[in-house]
Amino acid sequence: MSNGLFVLRFDGMVNTKTSEYHSAAFHVFPNPANEQINITLHNHMPVSTTLEIFSIAGHKIKEKVLNSVGNETIRLDISDLPAGMYFFHIGGMHSGINKFVKY
């Protein structure tokens, strides 16, 4: 990360298939989405973390503090975003960068 921007480099083929994304820490659905995405956090203790959404160009679009009390689903309104691909980063115990598609 440099100057607040993520630099993403893709080598080889890029998978353009969209589907629900699962990880050990969270589950994101539906994908693609139009009005909202749901993020289910899989943790067994209270945790505070930050969700950041970035455009494909690496500009931060949204940021939200998540105060999870355990296994729960957070609804995030994306209706104000233009159609396209976005990356999101969840920090803390749920650290990772993933993508979703807004149609």
Structure report:
It is a single chain. With 103 residues, the chain is mainly β. The protein has one domain (25-102): Immunoglobulin-like, CATH 2.60.40.3080. The chain has strands at residues 21-22, 26-29, 36-41, 47-55, 60-68, 72-77, 84-90, 96-102. A 4-stranded antiparallel β-sheet has the order 1-2-3-6, with no helix packed on it. The protein is globular.
Sum up the structure in keywords.
single chain; 103 residues; mainly beta; Immunoglobulin-like; four-stranded antiparallel sheet; 49% strand; globular
Short structural summary:
The chain has 103 residues and is mostly beta strands.
> How do the strands line up in the largest sheet?
1-2-3-6
Gross CATH architecture: Sandwich
Regarding quaternary structure, what we see is single chain
Average pLDDT value? 77
Discrete helix count: 0
According to CATH, what is the topology?
A: Immunoglobulin-like
Overall shape: it is globular
> How much beta, percentage-wise?
over 45%
> In this structure, how is the largest beta sheet organized?
4 strands, antiparallel
Task: Output the helix-strand order.
Answer: EEEEEEEE
Helix content: under 10%
- Which class do the helix and strand fractions yield? mainly beta
Which residue ranges are poorly predicted, with pLDDT under 50 across at least 5 consecutive positions? 10-22
What is the domain tally?
A: 1
